[in-house]
Specification:
By secondary structure, the protein is an alpha+beta fold. The chain has 11 helices and 14 strands. Helix 6 crosses helix 11 and helix 8 (243-261) runs antiparallel to helix 9 (303-312). It is globular, with a radius of gyration of 22 Å. The structure holds 7N-methyl-8-hydroguanosine-5'-diphosphate (M7G).
Amino acid sequence: MRSVRHAQRFIFFLVFPAVNLDWLISSGLIMAERENDGAAAKRPKTDAGELSSDSPVSDFKITRILRECAREKNIFIHGKVKDQDAVVILEKAPIRKDTLSELLKSSQLQLEMKNDVYSTYQLQAPAHLNEIKTTVICPATEKHVKKYLHQEVFLVEESGEDYRTVTLPYISSQSFSVQWVHNILEKKAEADRIVFEDPDPLTGFVLLPDFKWDKKQIQDLYLIAIVHRRDVKSLRDLTSEHLPLLTNLRSKGEDTIQRQYGVPPSKLRVYFHYQPSYHHLHVHFTSLEYNAPGCGVERAHLLSDVIQNLQADSSYYHNRSLAFPLRADDGLLLKFKEAGKL
Ligand code: M7G
């Protein structure tokens, strides 16, 4: 039965590679498969999908623009909601193939110019086809504001010794809170977004959509796998002891994405960030087609490379130098400068 369903889904995605997943799931063409469905039923429901009556952005007072990109069609704004600091990220959603004919049929066109065979228009789309993905961080810390502020970046090269003497003391006191990660693992938030869970305390993990992905199209697919273990901060802590965790994560993560979204492992980029922003081990699963922020060689480490490096040398990530970019006003950059490493 399952293989028939997989075959149907595979054919469907060959024909319609960019369909709306939510629609597919709600229409029953795709079953939202979850490994721990018994547990899923008991999870608290969030109010995702409902229209928000209490809009945090209507009260938002803009302080300054942190970053904007016309090509990526996004803008990062710092401001205040009531008297709390907040960051709001607005991003125009990609145009979806499954709503194209409705878009063309039901929109109004306003002519801008006409010349020979050329004409340009402003297309006024109905509201539901003209959504802007909005992320709100409130209350935002100074570190959140800095994270999104456009800044000069510098590459630092961190030896194993630098990690222990410079980086570790810094991140132990200055890292972003991982409360949101614990909320996911404890099903206190985003429980209904979990697409797969392996509950094993040592080799298990939770797989769910990254909050950068609106789940509307496959081209920019982005999921994160968060491990249940809480004693691994990043790539640096990994040894061959963690190989069962990593291989489990790779095979079950890839298998779930293939089944659930019809994307085969050969179309996925699966990697760690070093340095991550959040020091609780997690793996990024992104579509190979999508040029995800942070997927460049200065920050991304492919899970398959990490597995092979640990198979060859258990202390590979304890000892070797790792390069990573730091923003000009990152406190860690200052620590590297003070230690004479830059
Ligand atoms: P990272 O490498 O630690 O940091 O990855 P980065 O944000 O600098 O890439 C953390 C990943 O978790 C990122 O891809 C974030 O978009 C994602 N993420 C962050 N938060 C706070 C959330 C959240 O609350 N929910 C979900 N689903 N994803 C998040």
